[in-house]
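target protein:
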Amino acid sequence: MRNEIKNEAAFRDFLEGATYLKNGVEIHLTDKAINSRLSRIRVVQEAFSISLDEIVSDDLEMYKALTYLNEIKSTTHQPLQNALRKYYEFKNKKKFCMKLLYG
């Protein structure tokens, strides 16, 4: 069963408008990249006992969540962190500061 996230349609819209730089050119995310981030954010949601919105509404909770995801031994942890950072950006209209500031 697919685990729905709160505000999924709005998050998808945010991702559709997101861009990144590649060789100095602004590129939009592909449908595949968007679906991948949505899938990963669902995995992140299942990993925690509190909601994504609670995590991203508090910088200390966000830091703890990123630290936990970093401790996962699987090599797939980085995409999970990236998905959570994108969700933070979506909800807070800013990027999460470097976690080194909290370390």
